[in-house]
What we know:
Elements: E1 3-7, H1 10-13, H2 17-22, E2 26-29, H3 34-47, E3 52-61, E4 71-79, E5 83-86, E6 89-92, H4 93-96, E7 102-104, H5 114-117, E8 120-126, H6 134-141, E9 148-151, H7 154-164, E10 168-177, H8 188-207
Amino acid sequence: MKILIVAATEFEIAESIPFLQEYQVDYLITGVGMTATAFALGQRLASESYDLLVNVGIAGTFDPSRSLGDLVRVTKDQIYQFGAEDKGNFVSIETLGFGHSSFHAVLPEMQLPPVYTQLDAVEGISVNKVHGSEQSISELNHTLSTQTIESMEGAAFFYCATQANVPAIQVRSISNHVEPRNTKNWNIPDALSKLNRWLREFILQHRS
């Protein structure tokens, strides 16, 4: 099975790059955000064929009970508030009849290793602006499950995979709780360490 590891920044997988090179696993650094992800991944898939795409990165969680550094598998991701505003109401792109905002992980026919299947399953939202104020977070909490995480790329990744008909999974490590912005409460180093440990184990289990 030919795998492509997809990350927004080199920073997120830097610890694993020598390992990926040793095991001859392709990786792609797309740049931050949905536009950069869609362009970079679309270009790669136009020239290379893969059996599985694996999106990895850090994310914020809306679940206050989840610990920083927890790993989750994202089974569904949506472009948050993709649509129109009608006075005080939001109208989704689906209701407007112009497309879709939600996309799902696409599992390969081959069974994935336990290091993936045993992770907690969550849903994600992809945003252009990460949430960091009491007002916006309060509004979100009325519409989202606490089991939701936010990133800036996940929905675009699933969209590209769906369009190209390539199996795709997404795994995120929790770096922060979504709260009024306070970077002192974040733990990016631990989230990255656990994410990269998971990535190497995934490659090893997949090859065994």
